[in-house]
Amino acid sequence: MIWASGWRLASAVSNAGGLGIIGSGSMYPDVLKEHIIKCKAATNKPFGVNLPLLYPNIDEHIQTIIEYKVPIVFTSAGNPKAFTSLLKQHGIVVVHVVSSSKFAKKSEEAGCDAVVAEGFEAGGHNGREETTTLVLVPAVCNAVAIPVIAAGGIATGRQMLSTMVLGAEGVQIGSRFVASNEASSHENFKTAVIHTNEGDTVLSLKQLTPVRLLKNRFYNEVKQAEEKCATPDQLNILLGKGRAKKGMFEGDVEEGELEIGQVATLIKTIQPAAAIVKEIWTDFEAALTSPLNRR
Amino acid sequence: MIWASGWRLASAVSNAGGLGIIGSGSMYPDVLKEHIIKCKAATNKPFGVNLPLLYPNIDEHIQTIIEYKVPIVFTSAGNPKAFTSLLKQHGIVVVHVVSSSKFAKKSEEAGCDAVVAEGFEAGGHNGREETTTLVLVPAVCNAVAIPVIAAGGIATGRQMLSTMVLGAEGVQIGSRFVASNEASSHENFKTAVIHTNEGDTVLSLKQLTPVRLLKNRFYNEVKQAEEKCATPDQLNILLGKGRAKKGMFEGDVEEGELEIGQVATLIKTIQPAAAIVKEIWTDFEAALTSPLNRR
Q1: Domain A7-184+267-289 has what CATH class?
Q2: What is this structure's pTM?
Q3: Which residues pair with A171 in a beta bridge?
Q4: Do B134 and A141 lie within an 8 Å CB cutoff?
Q5: Is 3.20.20.70 the CATH classification of the domain at B7-184+265-289?
Q6: ipTM at complex level
């Protein structure tokens, strides 16, 4: 949710009864500080910060999170042992995002309070095992005793129930909230998301770090380079710097990197975050009342 | 289910209350005839035949199916318009296997009675869109009015309910029945299936027809060839003839092609087909009674 989930979206989700999460991966330390302060001013409900552990200024982010008493941190893309005990010493709930049972166990051993089990269909950075949510969630539930939150492929209340039937105790939803009024994503990107069809996203750049992207001119360049057996160095040069910002924040939907999940094919409108939360919840409750009666 | 589902498995599943399906893709015309005759002798319940439409002797298979009054045919890997009306003229129920909403709509237009929506996690041949079951099932349910059967990633009753919550009216289960006593798969392959871990299967040979395989020496050769930018012709030569038979039927688990789904990671024992059907059904009923209470 880089370039998408700042204080506006996080506070709107928390105010609507969800747990809003600020995506810190695209923020300079000062920017994160500002977003936390504004989020606290905009909601008196709990909210979280997602912290990619490979972030270059990670220590500054950690200090900000501790200083401003962020109640919940979602760590991802790194070793859960790195910061979990430090954060927990400050009373912060720590949830680690995993794409395998192996890392779920490591997270439990590191003292994490819960894990997010994120499947192959999810947008953005993704695991090399390519395990889908339908298989990953029961596998992770078998592997650990801490709560499991399902992610990847979830945009509706029926999908939420579907993954909770597998043992998840909650869900993490990304793509649907990119298509919200409060997301800081560029309007061009939001528009692209709601026009996505099946097969329009693809897990790409597997030689570097696998990332699910919306196909566009940039992706086609990557694909052509890969077909010509480009090396990781050549792909890194092609990728360059700032592709994600260019695409998702600045709205260059052809030359930018557009991170979104497969489930975008089910997202048809840009709505206020509160309306999304309400719709998902209403749909979830209806599904729970009548699980076999969708149609 | 080629090299796995003959009359023994199909009749055992049908006798246990499921709908057993004979996989005709690996059978010569005379062999299919024999399996249908033996299946009819072994069960008085309905059963089906899966018919890959690219099968070279397709007309002979069709004639056999009509002659022996097979009640239900699952067609796959081809255009649903090809044989649907002919089969239906003979009172045969026709279900087409799809990996996209687009082909689901084509199946409905062709007069199919139902579709199987099979996700990326499924074993064997697979769609190019790589849409997972969690996303594909609701998309297909939105696209067509005929019943939708979910497939790919389903080995337990909870997974069955999970996909039915999304709108499926039934499920098609493959991998779990490869690990059955009645499957004609070689014991070496069955043993490999129950020792599969997350990440051990991969969607391979995408330049030819994408197929989900268990990683082994043969797969590593394909991977190395692809990394050296092998052409489709070179891959076809490497693949050669009879790889699937060699692996799944003759038990050469290193040099053969082993088709199995991601869900193999959840399959731990080889059981009689009737025990599998019963366990899935019991698990499904428990899940339906208590959908949020897995753990």
Answers
A1: alpha beta
A2: 0.97
A3: A150
A4: no
A5: yes
A6: 0.97
